[in-house]
Design goal:
Chain lengths: 277, 274
Amino acid sequence: MNTIEVRGLRKTYGQHEAVRGLDLHVAPGEVFALLGPNGAGKSTTVEILEGHRRRDDGRVSVLGEDPGRATRAWRARIGVVLQNTHDAGELTVAESVRHFARLYPNPRDPAEVVELVGLTGKSRSRADSLSGGQRRRLDVALGIVGRPELLFLDEPTTGFDPEARRRFWSLIRTLAAEGTTILLTTHYLDEAEELADRVAVIANGEVVAEGTPASLGGRATAEATVRWVDERGPQLRRTPNPTALVAELGAHGELTELTVTRPSLEDTYLDLIGARA
Amino acid sequence: MTTTEARPLPGTLALGLARGGAELRQFFRAKEAVLFTFALPALLMALLGSVFGDEIPGTDVTTSQMFAASMIGAGIISTSFLTLGVGIAQDREDGTLKRLHGTPLPAASYFIGKLVLVAVASAAEVVLMLAVAVPLFDVRLPTDASRWLTFAWVFVLGVISCSLLGIAASSLARSARSAPAVLNLPYVALQFVSGVFILPISSLPSWMVTTGSLFPLKWVSQGFRSVFLPDTLALQEAAGSWEHGRIALVLLAWCVAGLALCAVTFRWTDRRAG
């Protein structure tokens, strides 16, 4: 059985149809990334899956239950890492993690969780004295201390510096390796490419493409672009067989600035959401 | 996972007490909250009490003694109504409620935690205010058990009714930043019409007394006057007596009304968001 199964999900706010007939499935142990522009219906969808918001229509099953009728036992099996929280600033890292551990029937060891997110050196610091990246790692610590089978991560690395993002990614890989199913929403396509087994792109409340990061939107089979510079100036040719073209070009001697590129995930994504000029 | 299902969820009361511990730590570490809701009533008592020095004619009690007894009532309303009204508006805005809603914490445990916070903060408020009132204004601590019993039930009913009203009022504020202003307006206005700032209450215009009598503050302050002042002072009350039965009745009615208002208005998240 899939960890998450969504069929024909709909949600309307007043006149605005935020989610219109969305389908989705996430298998156990998968890292699944939801991509989409602001206002595409990502957050609404995730909040419905987390049991924070009611749906208007559609079938939703998360860990075999309907999140619209969430029980305490069900909530004990999920972990939620929200965005834009700045709560409990007066508590220290260790106090917060210990407190949240008490809410679950079978928590991880709080000190181990603090270690896992790399905050051991800060465990006696108050949350409001942490940097943005450290604060985010505390959020993750609170989301995983209950040993969730399914973890929701909502734009987890917004505002991180590149090094902090790398460290965060390795934490997510550790959790995935332990068998945690992860649903990630992100604006960063490199993040999805780096972490996700599968991605889905949402636009206007619907899934417009779904697949592995390498194959999304026909990326793997798309024409390659070959660029080089010769005596006539910069050259560009699109071809399904770049290897043959390069061999042919190479027969005439060394080429300056030769590159072969396929569409990046970002190119594909921008095409899919119709944002490319 | 079978390990999760095999272990029982922690109990509602145990979790409520754990929440209470976390709430108390946060409250007493937040300097603004402590100054604003905790120290301010005691400071007002010290300052205003020093202004009203005269004896009330025909008694051996000074206006400052009467004011001090009334102000203790205003103090516990600050630690219950304001603490919860402002605190829950903040919990809603800073993500506390949303985060807790994503965990197996029952709503009841969240409220038990708030109750623990209010009970401890209000008891500490009474101690602080008596520590000001006894040396500064010669307020005498009662020696007989019946007065302490009156103190206990007025305290409990006052704190519960005003806590419930605070929880309900937390939804009125549009943001955590506006909450202190929105909640202080009725609180300060009620102190004028409930016989706290202007004493004795029988000197107020009757429409003010009528308005004040609709809300808990007047009755809590009256109850505390009956604890800390000699019985001869009952003549200075609006009705000319301490009216213990009516105090209990009004406060109980507000407990019921407050509970109903909470059930109707309480939300885990701000509906306006997202």
